[in-house]
Amino acid sequence: MASSLKKVFKQLPFWKKEKKRKIIKVLSIDGGGVRGIVPAMILQRLEELTGKRCYKMFDLIAGTSAGGIIAMLLAKPNGKGKGKYKAKEVVKIFEERSKDIFSQTVWEQIKSVRSLMERKYPSSGLEQVLDDYLGDTVLKEALTEVLITSYEIRRRNACFFKSSNAKLNPEFNIKMKHIGRATAAAPTYFEPAQVEIPNLDDPFVLIDGGIIANNPAMCAYVEARHMFPDADDIIVVSLGTGQFLNSYGYEEARRWGLANWVGPIVDFLFHGSEVTTDHQLKLLLPPNKTLGRRYYRFQINIRNDLGYLDDVRPDTIQELKNIVDQEVLTGKRYLLKELAGKLVL
Description:
alpha/beta, 46% helix, two-stranded parallel ribbon, 10 strands, globular
């Protein structure tokens, strides 16, 4: 009799304990060279609002190019089980070391101006900065799951460096600094990266991840669905590095030839891919009754003259910081607070 009553009571609403929902939180960071300071500043504010480090707030951090380097900096351990860098330290790295990444000798300046056949910068500056901050840390040591994009030009394949793969397959447990070199190997700016993979006769020949996904948010969302199939819900936070305000009219564009299209077409391809991803995720992750908003995209508008990946002038960096402060940290402060509340769930 007692056991029968117990079964009945367990079926009543007041007896049942509410199961804690498993909410997966995903961060995606666009590529953008020196403009990586934009998402770094937004992440600094989120860390201040939550009192938590990014590797604790997010179950997966994805990044392309500068965004990929930021992802690994945030997930790098300090050797004592904690994160090596706070977001505010990443901001400082972009402020102080971008000039070392995009650095030329006088002879290199002459060569890059005189010849269309020369890449703009030697890779030594980028490699030195990556070595200084990522050292010999390997991918499986990341404090949260990371996904970094690149493109392999020998085999013509998209390449995704995943910490989850590195934990299972030693051949993919590559040093973070080598992955950073690959994801940031922007054509015309740096030479391709070569990454040795055990059991492969030929090394990977890799270029900037922006070729396949300058906004890697969709890659991150799909990866999260695969990695956490038992998740009750997913929150995606996508951080841009600035979009141009300039536009073109028919009368202007219809007269363009090859030389005129070279500059705008790169912007169109990158921006088109970014806004397509944004559109798709808005449809895939509409607000629901449980969480409300589930997809957050933070982006700033910039003038065309602020859009160069390698514009490391102090005045340019300061202007980017001012725009972030005005458009996001101040202009969207309530949205940031709303998001911060969900990131501590």
